[in-house]
Request: fold
Amino acid sequence: MSTVFIISAPSGSGKSTLVKKVMAEDPRLAFSISYTTRAPRGAERDGEHYHFISRDEFLARIGRQEFLEWAEVFGNFYGTHQSELDRAQAAGKDLVLDIDVQGARQLRERIPRAASIFILPPSRHILEQRLRARSEDSDEVIERRLRAAAAEIRNYRGYHYVLINDQVEPSVERLRAIITAERLKQDRMREHVLPILETFGAGETDQAPEQD
Ligand code: 5GP
Reply:
């Protein structure tokens, strides 16, 4: 059984760094590569960071109901293709999705078992510093991202977990802990528990366990 990890965060909160570090050392995680209508940035490559497609193609794919979720973010369309989940399941992997708050809402409805994590910067001031240090954006874009962050952060209560990204390594540790805890949930452990029960000659029962 694959676990779906939904991760959302305002831009500049360090989400990509945390996700990359956790994924690099956990071969059981697969990253969902989204479709988008935005243009590639810097070193981004098609099929690796995103599938870059035209607006017309995106709309056609919406029409064919190919997306598990999709949303318009900063004037561009972004969507998660159903095949990402199918592929992860076939490979016995858990799927990590980096999606915005609108997409997360849709996905939680479609996949109620999904675990969702909201990453917060420690403060607005630190987020602004990080955005400026990236020196990718103009002042105007930074202002827009800060306003968007203020709106996005209000949605944190819809998520199961909150991670305040103060320092990279402790945050990576906490993200790993969340992933481990989700994998130890009783319904995910069943396939491992049943063979143990068999060694006791006991099958599963729906009855409440007896007290010692
Ligand atoms: P960026 O353009 O900076 O890569 O991403 C902008 C925003 O789009 C981020 O908040 C990111 O989480 C979100 N995003 C990326 N892919 C998807 C997707 O497939 N669906 C949704 N709903 N949001 C996405």
